[in-house]
Each structure stands twice: as C-alpha cells, then as structure tokens.
Amino acid sequence: MTSMTAVPPHVTHPPVSAAGASPAVPGNSPTFSPLYQQIKALITQSLQSGEWKPGELIPSEVELAARFKVSQGTVRKAIDELSAENLVVRRQGKGTFVATHHEARAQFRFLRLMPDEGEPQPAENRVLDVKRLRAPAEVARLLDLRTGDPVIFIKRVQSFDGIATILDELWLPGALFKGLTTERLVEYKGPMYGLFETEFGTSMIRATERIRAVSADAAAAEALGIAAGTPLLSVERVSYTYGDRPVEVRRGLYLTARHHYENELS
Amino acid sequence: MTSMTAVPPHVTHPPVSAAGASPAVPGNSPTFSPLYQQIKALITQSLQSGEWKPGELIPSEVELAARFKVSQGTVRKAIDELSAENLVVRRQGKGTFVATHHEARAQFRFLRLMPDEGEPQPAENRVLDVKRLRAPAEVARLLDLRTGDPVIFIKRVQSFDGIATILDELWLPGALFKGLTTERLVEYKGPMYGLFETEFGTSMIRATERIRAVSADAAAAEALGIAAGTPLLSVERVSYTYGDRPVEVRRGLYLTARHHYENELS
DNA sequence: AAGTGGTCTAGACCACTTT
DNA sequence: AAGTGGTCTAGACCACTTC
Predict the structure, then answer these.
(1) What is the pTM of this model?
(2) Mean pLDDT, chain B, as a whole number?
C-alpha cells in the first residue's frame, strides 16, 4: 500500500498520470506493491471490520471493480488469493462468501486427528474447567500480551465413539472474550471456533502447531482414562485472526491408539 | 482431457467449430475440462517423460503458447497451478524451471522436524542396513505392488549436532531402484531425494504422513542411544511421483526432546 | 536491447444459479 | 432472462535478468 488511495495507478488505456505519487524513480520505489495486492488488503480490511460477516455474500466482482475503479480481472486476482487462503469461498453462479466455521466443510480444517478405521466422527465435548487468570509468561509471549494480563483458561476432554481421546487446555485473551462463561461453552453445539466467531466476532484464520511425543502424567492419565506413562501426542497450537494477531493458545494431548494425526506434504 | 488433441477448442475470435467433438449437449458434456487444465496435463506429461529434467529451464510462456496454439494467458494459468503444486519454480526475468531436490530451499519441504532453539541444521546420516527383500503385505498395499514383489529396504539414523534424532526405515519398489547399493547411498552427499532424482529419474512430488506417539522399543532405544520406553513420534510417510504413483514408504521415529514437528494450518 | 515472467485492462463467451 | 463466477483471448506496460 503506497501510492493508491482514491485514484489507483492505472497503466494502459487511460493515460492518466500512471505511477502517480511515487517518487519518480521506479527501480528504487520503496515498498512498491501491485494493484491487486492493494485491493486484496482493502477487501481484507472490510472483512476484519465486519462490513461483511462470516457466511455472508460479499459484493460481486463487477461491483468491487467499480468501487475500487479497477478492472474486474484485478479484483479477480485479489479474490483468488483470499480464496486460496480460505478467507472467502467462491461459488459459481451464486457469488463469493465470507468463510465461516459453521460448516461441515470447515470442521476438520484445524483438527487433523483422524480415525485409523472408518469415517471421521463428531466429537463429544466435556468441559472440565473454565476460569479467569493472569497470563503466565509463556502464554503472554505467544498471545502478544504482558505477563499478568487477564486470560481465560479452559480445560476440556473430547471423546470419539465414547472414548476419551483429546485433553485440551486453552488460553484466550480476556479482553476479547469478556462474556465467555462455562454455561455458554457447555450448552453450545458445534465447533468452538463457531462460537468464537458468532458470539465474540473473532475469526480464526490460520494456526501453527508444534508436535511432540510425551508420556501421560497422572493428571492426563486420569482425565483420559489411560495408564500413566502412555505415549501421547502433544500439540501446541497458536491461532491467528486477521492481521496475523494471535488470539488463542492451545495445548492438546492426543491419544493415538485408534487415531493418527494426518498431514499432507507438498 | 476429452475433446482436445491437435486443435484446441478455441472460443472467441477464431470462430472455429468451438466445442468441437463434444456430444452436442453442453450441460451434459461428460468430463469437460477447461483448456488450461488440458495444457497443464500436457506440460506435466513432458515433465514426467523427462523432456525437461529437474533443474532445467522449460520453454517460455510465449513458446508454449505457440506450441499448443493457445494464448499466453492460458499457458500462464496452467503454469500458475504447477507452480503452486511445487512442480516448477518461476523466476522473474529468467524463466520457469523444473523443481529439484538439489536446493537448500527444497530440503525442508519434506522434513518438518525443527530444532526448538536455533536454526535448522543439516543432518548427518548413518546407514545401518540396505537389503533387497520381498514386500510385506502392508508395504505392498501402500506401494501398489503385490505381496512378495521385490523391494529395497533401507535403515538409517539421522543426527543433528551429533545427537541421534531420527531412526528411519524405508521401502522402495525394486523395479524403480535397481542399481541402488549401500556404497552409493553412503557416499552420496545431500538429500536422499536428490539421489533418487538424478540417479534413478524418480521425482518425489508430494507425500502424506500419519503421525502417532509411541514408546521406544529395545531396538529403537539402542539405535538412538536413549532409554527404552522414551516417547517417540512415529511418522509414516507415503511419497508420490507424477501421476500420484506411490514410490516410497517410510517409517521414521523422531526423538522430540530438542526438536518438534512443525505444521501450518490454514 | 532483448527476453522472461508479472501486472493490468477490456471484452467475449461459458457454466451455473436464481428469478 | 439476468446475474455470478470461470475461462479465454489480445495487447499493453512493468520489473528483472542477461547480453
């Protein structure tokens, strides 16, 4: 985002001032970015500001082209990238929609634990604990907060086919999830990220995970109903919303007796 | 790939027979595929056949457009997808190159184990065993062979900073890796996939991994110099070459005391 | 200066969905 | 029939690399 604001730097047909406000020398132009990237940033801003909410239809390519005074092809390329990053979903003949976690399709985007046999089953959740506390140093660092800032802590067990399989501990920035209560969490059906999205206006866009093998300690063994010492997958996740702002730290312990973590490399 | 062979189904300006050989009804046209997908398939064939080898420059977009009698934009879209799938690498001003495993850039594409502290280090390899044997049922199934078909078995340990960290077992189809000897494997510097690529003409394109937590048995403990029962990451990989043909089964045991498996979700 | 990929435009038609 | 995204074309200029 450099030159462009109202009048974008048109190039060919309309022989407007072209490169416009940039400081003459093209080779040295600092932080030049192509038009479609600027359009992409503008659309992302509208997503972030809530102008178009998850699940809603965004304006058509023709409309956006008119609004930004660029060609449809340029808008198209911007939306192509947003679609590749799963921020929006295109549907031929219908339009482009803001991505949402309220879909069967989106359920397994962030949960890579698959059953060794048979189809993925919906998880049964049991919330063990919800409390407010002050961020430990490590959590604060990951969430870009200060040590001691208020955070919400959640502990829960997820079961598949009645077998306790995942023990999760979550930390959320207190400022973003003010009204979050145990009741709300327990009564809510569907994926937790759906609740975060509709109740708190926070959309999880991407995440990074660090995976290790660990031994179940006494507490984990009890929560999952297994022997202490059983090998477990430790999955540390940091989730990000628009603008790469971290908004969730999660540590999961996965029992991989009947399940495995599945990953595609390419 | 349906209608098109010599004369592609041009659409606009040259008012040739358009949809051509397809069976009249457009809505029902069986397995229609867009032009750029057909071009992409043709380019992939040339990659697979070895017309352009890993690391080499492929013809320019203009040349390919002329060869296939389509516009440059159509070739561009085909190459865009091949680039997104890491089959080729574009370099502005230079051209488009066939992807190769002989690059620093490509080293960590298939190895997601990262040090907890500091920068990724190159691995030191120690080959423990190389032998020819008959494919066990499970390996045969994964490699799309028959049980008992000849396979090559490799066992090795990888160390980082002098610390044994990965115990690998590999199975390769014997038919594809005929001349593979212990000596060749030991003396070869650089990534194994580089050797497979240049010596045996087999390029690894993508892979799937299944990850579990396990306890080190006596053999693994000895090979890695750790206590039996230590939790290890079990990583089962199946690698594929062009046309989604499986060409490697690998089972790695990762020590995650000072390293972690890193994954991006989006 | 010439060649390559990268961006941008304008306009056409196709496939799909809804009215 | 009208609107949406999807494909295809043709031509222009830009940024980068090499000669």
Answers:
(1) 0.90
(2) 89
